[in-house]
Design brief:
377 residues, 5-stranded antiparallel β-sheet, 3-stranded antiparallel β-sheet, flat, transmembrane, membrane, ion transport, MscS-like_plants/fungi
């Protein structure tokens, strides 16, 4: 499909496939002649996504290749030479999507598995978003039908001259009373509709931060939105309240930055600090699938005339939607930094303190200490 020119019919088919269909792999009858049930190639859960990724890897990888160490292809090996199946531009695009290395033309088994699982998660989140949107639209449709029905009845009564002026005056007075009672409710519904269909700051499955708390969007309704906190506690927010709050959406954010702060003693030699910066920068630039190149190691400030506060500013090749993956990558960097500090003998030292004793406490006893006491006979 061309994103710049999508017909309404194709979009309707796409929405139907996402909402009611399942992710499926290519028919394996192409690879061998054994007949298999269609359900074996359909992905309905994360476990089936991992199984499908393993099956794809085994079918596509060269079975008896000897990469690097001369060993035969095992589970830790890679898919070699994707140009056998795709054009060069498509292969490079696939490599970039799967976080593979376009230089070595390889995609590891773990990378393929993570990509298939993430594709399944995104498709499931999109299906839930479409279902919630369809439900909200249906409820709105029922509300509009009721209002239109009441309006048509009143117009018919006026046209048929069944409703007199006294009757219309009575109806209008009752409408004023109903508006006085339910006016705030109507305002809340209108604000919720504007927030849900016009502002639309999130979809189902997005990681959002509201009032300093990170939550996952679980369900979207006309009046409320259900969130899941980090401990899987459900929190329900009225949409009219959310429309007045700043909402941070991690899923819609571009590749996000990060910072690792640490302290170094002020007496640390400048050459050690220079070597430390170079080693940290080299490690980050080697991990091209995790970080962008050219990180910044800066001296931020002095603390107490004995410590220098430093920081590593770098940028992930992902946003923070998958918070677990973000912390795993950060943990690997911190572990490498600890190793560098130990190799360079950069340790934490306290500032020396001068202690001056001006007075001594008076003795509470005049008895002299003795090395031993005679036992009573």
């Amino acid at each position: 499909m061309n994103p710049k020119n999508i017909s309404a019919w194709n979009m309707k088919r796409l929405v139907k496939i996402v909402r009611h269909g399942v992710i499926s792999t290519l028919d394996e009858q192409i690879l061998d002649t054994t007949q298999e049930d269609e359900s074996t190639t359909q992905i309905r859960s994360e476990f089936e996504a991992k199984v499908a990724a393993r099956k794809i890897f085994q079918n596509v990888a060269r079975p008896r290749s000897k990469p690097h160490g001369g060993n035969m292809l095992q589970s830790s090996s890679s898919i070699c030479k994707m140009m056998r199946f795709l054009r060069e531009d498509e292969a490079l695009k696939t490599m970039s999507v799967m976080d593979g290395s376009s230089e070595s033309e390889r995609i590891s088994k773990s990378t393929l598995k993570n990509w298939v699982v993430n594709a399944f998660r995104e498709r499931r989140a999109l299906a839930l978003t479409l279902n919630d949107t369809k439900t909200a639209v249906n409820k709105l449709h029922h509300m509009v039908n009721v209002l239109v029905g009441i309006t048509i009845v009143v117009i018919c009564l006026v046209i048929l001259e069944i409703a007199t002026s006294k009757f219309l005056l009575f109806v209008s007075s009752q409408i004023v009373v109903v508006a006085f009672i339910f006016g705030n409710t109507c305002k809340t519904i209108f604000e919720a509709l504007i927030f849900l269909f016009v502002m639309h700051p999130y979809d189902v499955g997005d990681r959002c931060e509201i009032d300093g708390v990170q939550m996952i969007v679980e369900e979207m309704n006309i009046l409320t939105t259900v969130f899941l906190r980090y401990d899987n506690q459900k929190i329900i927010f009225p949409n009219s309240t959310l429309s007045t709050k700043p909402i941070s959406n991690y899923y819609r954010s571009p590749d996000m930055g990060d910072a690792v702060e640490f302290h170094v003693h002020i007496a640390t030699p400048a050459d050690k600090i220079a070597i430390m910066k170079q080693k940290i920068t080299s490690y980050i630039e080697i991990k091209k699938d995790h970080w962008y190149a050219s990180p910044t190691v800066v001296l931020m400030e002095l603390e107490g005339l004995n410590m220098m506060k430093m920081a590593v500013w770098l940028r992930h090749r992902m946003n923070h939607q998958n918070m677990g993956e973000k912390w795993q990558r950060r943990a690997l960097l911190v572990e490498q930094m600890v190793t560098i500090f130990k190799e360079l003998d950069i340790e934490y030292r306290l500032h020396p303190l001068d202690i001056n004793i001006r007075t001594m406490p008076t003795a509470s006893s005049a008895r002299l200490p003795s090395t031993w006491e005679a036992s009573p006979s």
